[in-house]
Design goal:
By secondary structure, this protein is mainly α. Helix content is 60%, strand content 4%. It is elongated.
């Protein structure tokens, strides 16, 4: 009988990846714990050296382990980095029609709840980070690159709020949208457009109002202010004819997550 064309026999390396994942779950081990050495994995799962290495490489690409060499080396379990998850999402969206209006429609639904839910959990360190973000964006930009850096810092303000919200799924979804805005929204040479500086001034004023309401622990006011802020920001985005670029995110663009307690740094390319 003919085999359906969409079915295939899994490779031994793929099967071993599944077995390792089951092994991790059954033993309830987590980030920072080490997997058995390569030779031990071969014995444990009854596979060849090549299959074991293929499985470890697949897990490393997925971001589930980091592999080091040397006498004390091996595979260490780690949390899947946000940047790696975003890379997969961005590659998925490469083949989809996406515009700024769609991004803001989702932001308007999610981010007011994210910000309101963060209010009870904001620490003095978070407030200091929010204040630094505003201070970075307040001065008139010195040149084109400074203007672009300020707009990226605008998003860092939202990253700080996201990091304080205890709802892991809501936080993840809003962080993904921030990443999309940071990496895929193109403004070209528009920092010279009058509306670009108006957007910056409007963002700073909105962030100051949000910070004041958050310091007062007024979650409902923060929710209202965030809706107003996003409506204003989308209006300026439309004036600037902002577009979403189709692009892949490269491994060379990957970086460690930005700490919510420190200003964002320029993205480095190696």
């Amino acid at each position: 009988m003919a085999v359906a064309p969409n079915l295939r026999t899994p490779k031994r390396g793929d099967l071993m990846v599944e077995e390792i994942k089951r092994w991790i779950v059954e033993r309830r081990i987590g980030p920072g714990d080490k997997l058995p050495k390569e030779g031990e994995l071969q014995t444990l799962f009854g596979v060849s050296k090549g299959t074991a290495r293929e499985a470890l490489k697949s897990l490393e690409v997925q971001g589930l382990v980091t592999v080091s060499t040397g006498p004390s080396g091996g595979a260490t379990i780690g949390e899947v980095p946000l940047e790696r998850t975003f890379q997969l999402l961005q590659n998925y969206l490469f083949f989809r029609d996406l515009d700024v209006g769609q991004l803001y429609a989702v932001r308007r639904l999610l981010e007011p709840e994210l910000a309101a839910g963060a209010v009870p959990h904001l620490s003095e360190g978070d407030f200091a980070a929010l204040e630094r973000s505003i201070a970075t964006c307040a001065p008139a930009p010195q040149d084109h690159s400074h203007a672009v850096a300020q707009r990226r810092e605008d998003l860092h303000f939202h990253d700080v709020l996201a990091a304080a919200n205890p709802n892991a799924l809501l936080r993840f979804m809003c962080e993904m949208i921030n990443h999309l805005l940071r990496h895929m929204v193109a403004v070209g040479d528009q920092p010279s457009h009058p509306a670009y500086q108006q957007l910056g001034d409007t963002n700073v004023a909105a962030h100051r109002r949000l910070l004041a309401a958050a310091r007062a622990r007024d979650a409902e006011r923060v929710r209202e202010l965030m809706v107003e802020h996003l409506d204003e920001a989308e209006g300026y985005a439309r004036k600037l004819s902002t577009v979403v670029r189709r692009r892949f995110m490269l491994d060379s663009e990957m970086q460690a997550p930005i700490s919510p307690h420190s200003p964002s740094k320029p993205r480095r390319t190696r």
